[in-house]
């Protein structure tokens, strides 16, 4: 198997030297309306910079107007308002990325993102506020509830939605912003929290005409209510089943993506930044055996094949920002050479140097074989990598294109005060 895969890389992979080499990938995107850009880790500078450059090209050359990331909606909304000029508070891009206060803050509060956010603001200033920036993750239950209450208090203080929001928020108050406390306690009390957040989302959707304006506050209200409803479901499932909670999270991200697309019109084109494990089709990995789905799979199932394009990333070695345990301080870690017979090692074996391949009818079958594909999360232990961190993958079924970077370096975090987990 390895010999044929090695031959496939030699025959079909192209050298990747600089951003100029992204033009072939932009061309391969064609008329797709959804482009998903992965990463093999959350703490690698090169993945962020390449995604940023590719996003610039897609915005400028292909008319993409939406960027959605694996981050909290309330924090990303501050970025969105910044780049669209809704809040003229004099902040810089470097300051606005500090809006991401939930651990791991460095995932979005970093120098690489500040550069891209600064470019987005400048682009929008020159082109009439065209491109938006949105967070599609599920973790911000309390922050999203606060956003709902704050907005309704100022816009419709006598309305029924505010009372629903207050009831829903009061249901979660006893758990001191600790989702684990809520999840563990769920078995001992009624379904009142489930009912309250469901009523709130339903009412806001029914009354959305009341909240329309020129600053996307109606979308902001709706997504925050959606986060509250789905996060409640996620945290309940978290202590019961990793597979179920994973599916709830990815289904939420798809729902948020579709709400954003519906709001701006289904002809609007969206770029999605997430880890490979979310954007690469789960059906082409061993995740399928555990009953797990992901964003890449569901979006492919919901849309025409030509409307969805997924790009994966990999690296052979380098450095990365990660932590030794959830919620602990980050540090720069060494990424060891890729495991023998993994996709990354096979790309390396064909000769040093970064490469890329766009999968098509001519070469897709050659890459439709199983091999391990490295995945590094926010928690990482390089010394134990040989026992984990590799997802069995059929590369050409998981992605539409793949960029292999020979040696990568850690991103540069920006210090954020008063962080929450």
UniProtKB/TrEMBL annotation:
<dbReference type="GO" id="GO:0046677">
    <property type="term" value="P:response to antibiotic"/>
</dbReference>
<dbReference type="InterPro" id="IPR052036">
    <property type="entry name" value="Hydrolase/PRTase-associated"/>
</dbReference>
<dbReference type="Pfam" id="PF05139">
    <property type="entry name" value="Erythro_esteras"/>
</dbReference>
<dbReference type="InterPro" id="IPR007815">
    <property type="entry name" value="Emycin_Estase"/>
</dbReference>
<dbReference type="InterPro" id="IPR014622">
    <property type="entry name" value="UCP036794_erythomycin"/>
</dbReference>
<protein>
    <submittedName>
        <fullName>Erythromycin esterase</fullName>
    </submittedName>
</protein>
């Amino acid at each position: 198997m390895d010999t044929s895969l090695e031959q496939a890389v030699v025959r079909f992979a192209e050298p990747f030297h600089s951003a100029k080499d992204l033009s072939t990938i932009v061309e391969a995107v064609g008329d797709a309306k959804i482009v998903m850009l992965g990463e093999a880790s959350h703490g690698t500078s090169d993945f962020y910079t390449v995604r940023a450059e590719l996003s610039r090209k897609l915005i400028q050359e292909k008319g993409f107007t939406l960027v959605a990331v694996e981050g909290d909606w309330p924090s990303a909304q501050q970025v969105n308002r910044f780049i669209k000029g809704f809040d003229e508070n004099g902040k810089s891009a470097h300051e606005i990325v500090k809006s991401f206060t939930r651990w791991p803050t460095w995932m979005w509060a970093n120098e690489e993102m500040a550069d891209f956010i600064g470019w987005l603001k400048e682009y929008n200033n020159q082109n009439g506020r065209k491109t938006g920036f949105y967070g599609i993750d599920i973790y911000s239950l309390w922050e999203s509830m606060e956003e709902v209450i704050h907005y309704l208090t100022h816009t419709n203080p006598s309305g029924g939605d505010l009372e629903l929001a207050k009831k829903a928020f009061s249901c979660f108050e006893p758990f001191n912003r600790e989702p684990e406390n809520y999840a563990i306690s769920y078995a001992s009390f009624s379904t009142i929290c489930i009912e309250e957040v469901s009523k709130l989302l339903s009412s806001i959707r029914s009354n959305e005409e009341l909240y329309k304006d020129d600053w996307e506050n109606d979308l902001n209200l709706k997504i925050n209510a959606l986060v509250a409803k789905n996060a409640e479901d996620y945290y309940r499932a978290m202590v019961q089943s990793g597979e179920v909670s994973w599916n709830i999270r990815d289904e939420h991200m798809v729902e948020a993506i579709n709400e954003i697309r519906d709001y701006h019109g289904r002809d609007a084109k969206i770029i999605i930044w997430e880890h490979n494990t979310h954007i690469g089709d789960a059906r082409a990995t061993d995740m399928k055996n555990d009953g797990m789905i992901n964003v890449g799979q569901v979006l492919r199932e919901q849309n025409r094949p030509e409307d969805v394009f997924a790009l994966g990333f990999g690296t052979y070695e380098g450095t990365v920002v990660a932590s030794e345990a959830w919620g602990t301080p980050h540090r720069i870690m060494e990424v060891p050479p890729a495991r023998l017979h993994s996709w990354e090692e096979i790309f390396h074996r064909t000769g040093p140097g970064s490469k890329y391949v766009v999968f098509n009818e001519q070469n897709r079958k050659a890459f439709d074989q199983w091999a391990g594909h490295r995945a590094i999360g926010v928690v990482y232990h390089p010394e134990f990598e040989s026992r984990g961190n590799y997802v069995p993958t059929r590369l050409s079924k998981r992605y539409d294109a793949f960029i292999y970077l020979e040696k990568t370096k850690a991103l540069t975090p920006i210090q954020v005060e008063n962080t929450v987990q």
